[in-house]
Automatic annotation (TrEMBL):
It is a single-pass membrane protein. GO terms for cellular component: bacterial-type flagellum basal body; plasma membrane. This is Flagellar protein FliL. Controls the rotational direction of flagella during chemotaxis. It is found in: Cell inner membrane; Cell membrane. It comes from Candidatus Accumulibacter adjunctus. The keyword Cell membrane applies. InterPro entries: FliL. Keywords: Cell inner membrane, Cell membrane, Cell projection, Chemotaxis, Cilium, Flagellar rotation, Flagellum, Membrane, Transmembrane, Transmembrane helix. Belongs to the FliL family. It comes from the Bacteria.
Amino acid sequence: MAKDAKPATDTGDAAPAKSSKKLLIIIVLLVLVLGLGGLSAFLLLRGNAAHEEDGDEAVVEKAKPAKKKKVDLNAPPVYVPLDAFTVNLVPENGDQFLQLIVSVEVDDPQVGEHIKLYTPKLRNDITLLLSSKKASQLITKEGKELLAQEIREQMNGVLDPAGKGKKRDWPIKDVLFTSFIIQ
């Protein structure tokens, strides 16, 4: 019986040692997971707290490429050239077409990068606008000025779809024709 008692005692000592090591490992892992989860929650909530101070504008600001800077009135304007447009005009006296090269004036160079992202949509909308015109509408100075205004509104509608900016705060300040040919 002495032999039977001795192995029972060795097995009893080994089992608590193994279970205490496993318990210690589980506790350490649990503390690490909870600590990392708490740190992640803290960082996420701290990041959102800055946006909550702004109120409802926080959702709108996420879509903006950058925060709006103060405009330096002495800074030179930034011009973004667009590729040439060639469209058929609405027929009056036979087939006529318009070839147009446009540059747009913006306050911020980052708007130029934003324009590049939306180029396919901008070109489509401007092409549709141009092809709906008659040559007689575009010949006069007033017709050209009206067209520039319509292009500006069209572009700002794409770049500022929520209409957040007032007309004076639109990304596109002016539309300039660098070439205007009707044939």
